């Protein structure tokens, strides 16, 4: 069978090391050289000729993370790698997935074009901000679902009166997957914004009185929406409110907002490293799921079989 090489960009090595450990392969040797002006030159210090190469790199800011991934893919292609998969746990610029006003880019499509132009044969990621981003690619996309790590954790919490809530109308499909699994209802928080990262108003649609509410979202940035939703839900008579958010962007006053909020717990994954610790934030690792997905890809087995039904 063709050899597997698991390699990593600099800022995702914390996760790549765990993935390689679960997979049972050592993490490949990559060095990033820099010129005096800051320009980078990634170097793969081992042969990848004919190999299945998996590059692990989330594309959160700074933009150098994306640039580094593109250069690594190009290096592997020019070194005659057999098959190149870009494993992008957090796919940056995914919020810009459509032209919602004049003279703005569709950035997610541009990133897709760049990855294909660099030489990627396959993309593996988790919880796109919008499912339609898969259609921006003309190469296979393995879209992993975070329910595979969150659902077992929620079962361990013993929430007898649980109900799931979407913090906005756009997240209803994501939330319904949890409510369907737990055979319970769902609630919708209908919000509207007057500008980015600032919620102007919110209405809770559904009955949360006496329930343990779990808010479900794909990412948390400033945490303004989550904290506002938690506050309103508690005022509606909920017993507790916790939140599941796959990608912990956590910018601005996010940590302060969370610690001062009505949230019992914020459950996130390690697709993005936390900038600081918080007693309210619980991190669950995606490493085992990605390792299994990499193995299934290499062995031409189903990826959907990894998900909780």
Automatic annotation (TrEMBL):
<dbReference type="Pfam" id="PF13793">
    <property type="entry name" value="Pribosyltran_N"/>
</dbReference>
<dbReference type="InterPro" id="IPR029057">
    <property type="entry name" value="PRTase-like"/>
</dbReference>
<dbReference type="GO" id="GO:0002189">
    <property type="term" value="C:ribose phosphate diphosphokinase complex"/>
</dbReference>
<dbReference type="GO" id="GO:0005524">
    <property type="term" value="F:ATP binding"/>
</dbReference>
<keyword id="KW-0479">Metal-binding</keyword>
<keyword id="KW-0545">Nucleotide biosynthesis</keyword>
<dbReference type="GO" id="GO:0016301">
    <property type="term" value="F:kinase activity"/>
</dbReference>
<dbReference type="GO" id="GO:0005737">
    <property type="term" value="C:cytoplasm"/>
</dbReference>
<dbReference type="GO" id="GO:0006164">
    <property type="term" value="P:purine nucleotide biosynthetic process"/>
</dbReference>
<dbReference type="InterPro" id="IPR005946">
    <property type="entry name" value="Rib-P_diPkinase"/>
</dbReference>
<dbReference type="GO" id="GO:0004749">
    <property type="term" value="F:ribose phosphate diphosphokinase activity"/>
</dbReference>
<dbReference type="InterPro" id="IPR029099">
    <property type="entry name" value="Pribosyltran_N"/>
</dbReference>
<keyword id="KW-0808">Transferase</keyword>
<keyword id="KW-0418">Kinase</keyword>
<dbReference type="GO" id="GO:0000287">
    <property type="term" value="F:magnesium ion binding"/>
</dbReference>
<dbReference type="InterPro" id="IPR000836">
    <property type="entry name" value="PRTase_dom"/>
</dbReference>
<feature type="domain" description="Ribose-phosphate pyrophosphokinase N-terminal">
    <location>
        <begin position="4"/>
        <end position="119"/>
    </location>
</feature>
<keyword id="KW-0963">Cytoplasm</keyword>
<protein>
    <recommendedName>
        <fullName>ribose-phosphate diphosphokinase</fullName>
        <ecNumber>2.7.6.1</ecNumber>
    </recommendedName>
</protein>
<keyword id="KW-0547">Nucleotide-binding</keyword>
<dbReference type="Pfam" id="PF14572">
    <property type="entry name" value="Pribosyl_synth"/>
</dbReference>
<keyword id="KW-0460">Magnesium</keyword>
<keyword id="KW-0067">ATP-binding</keyword>
<dbReference type="GO" id="GO:0006015">
    <property type="term" value="P:5-phosphoribose 1-diphosphate biosynthetic process"/>
</dbReference>
């Amino acid at each position: 069978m063709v050899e597997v090489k698991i390699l990593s960009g600099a800022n995702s090595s914390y996760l790549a090391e765990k993935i390689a450990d679960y997979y049972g392969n050592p993490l490949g040797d990559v060095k990033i050289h820099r010129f005096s002006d800051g320009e980078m030159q990634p170097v793969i210090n081992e042969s990848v000729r004919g190999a299945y190469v998996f590059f692990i790199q989330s594309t959160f800011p700074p933009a150098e993370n994306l640039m580094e991934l593109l250069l690594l893919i190009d290096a592997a292609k020019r070194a005659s790698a057999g098959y190149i998969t870009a494993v992008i746990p957090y796919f940056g610029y995914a919020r810009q997935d459509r032209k919602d006003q004049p003279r703005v880019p569709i950035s997610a499509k541009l990133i897709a074009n760049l990855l294909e132009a660099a030489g990627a044969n396959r993309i593996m990621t988790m919880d796109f901000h919008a499912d339609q981003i898969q259609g921006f690619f003309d190469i296979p996309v393995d879209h992993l679902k975070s329910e595979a790590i969150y659902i077992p954790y929620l079962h361990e919490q013993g929430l007898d009166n649980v109900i799931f809530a979407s913090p906005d109308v756009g997240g209803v499909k994501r939330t319904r997957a949890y409510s369907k699994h737990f055979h319970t209802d769902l609630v919708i928080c209908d919000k509207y914004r007057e500008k980015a990262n600032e919620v102007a108003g919110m209405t809770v649609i559904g009955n949360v009185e006496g329930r343990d509410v779990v808010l479900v979202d794909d990412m948390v940035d400033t945490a303004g929406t989550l904290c506002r939703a938690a506050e309103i839900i508690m005022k509606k008579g909920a017993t507790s409110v916790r939140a599941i958010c796959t990608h912990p962007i956590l910018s601005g006053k996010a940590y302060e907002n969370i610690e001062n909020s009505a949230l019992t717990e914020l459950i996130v994954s390690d697709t993005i490293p936390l900038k600081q610790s918080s007693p309210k934030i619980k991190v669950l690792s995606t490493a085992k799921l990605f390792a299994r997905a990499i193995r299934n890809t290499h062995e031409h087995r189903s990826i959907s079989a990894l998900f909780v039904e």
